[in-house]
Amino acid sequence: xxxxxxxxxxxxxxxxxxxxxxxxxxxxxxxxxxxxxxxxxxxxxxxxxxxxxxxxxxxxxxxxxxxxxxxxxxxxxxxxxxxxxxxxxxxxxxxxxxxxxxxxxxxxxxxxxxxxxxxxxxxxxxxxxxxxxxxxxxxxxxxxxxxxxxxxxxxxxxxxxxxxxxxxxxxxxxxxxxxxxxxxxxxxxxxxxxxxxxxxxxxxxxxxxxxxxxxxxxxxxxxxxxxxxxxxxxxxxxxxxxxxxxxxxxxxxxxxxxxxxxxxxxxxxxxxxxxxxxx
Length: 279
Hints:
Elements: E1 9-22, E2 25-38, E3 42-46, H1 53-60, E4 68-73, E5 76-77, H2 83-93, E6 94-97, H3 111-122, H4 127-135, H5 151-163, E7 169-173, H6 181-196, E8 200-204, H7 208-213, E9 216-221, E10 224-230, E11 235-236, H8 249-252, E12 260-265, E13 268-273
Parallel strand pairs: 3-8, 3-9, 6-7, 7-8
Antiparallel strand pairs: 1-2, 1-4, 4-5, 9-10, 10-11, 12-13
Helix pairs in contact: 3-4, 3-5, 5-6
């Protein structure tokens, strides 16, 4: 079962930077991301292609190292871990579903063998294997290897494997991107089940079906968090540790020259277009 208490931060990101070299120079995929992700909730990360979603997930999944900032997973500073401790954390406590399900699966293992292997690794009971097969509707395909499964069946298997034993952190990158409504519902039910059991579920998505069931939605734009919406509908604009604030796109039209006058008042702050106060 997942270790963190529901609502506690299972993942903490502070000033995360990710820079990729390219022929045209450096590409800054993440520009100082500050975010906490809570146990027991599904958090969706949205944003246009190139906004940094996949880079952020790769860092949280411990597949890549950030180029700056700090990452803590389950209370452990990732940069301070030995290679062996990092591997242990990645294998036992952080589950991942990639954009391409075959990247999460072994070609020589059947559906049942995949689930059984992960159940043993996470110390889950044997019964968890059969239960997982039923939840994602693969009873009739339990003895098939991934190469004999359809794309939708492969994705259901990848999600079922990730959810066995309700890992403390479960990360999914566009898990419903190419699925029909019925298959998407099975995938989303499994992710929600893990969150209800205490897992911290983080999903990068363009899919409104995922956004609709998420407890929290973070929007990324140009490698920076631009909005944070809770299930109750309240949306806030995050202010990062350097004091940067990203306005939502609909507000940018009010500032055509890219400047705002900041007026600090006793009960808040006002932003006015241009450099002169309005009456």
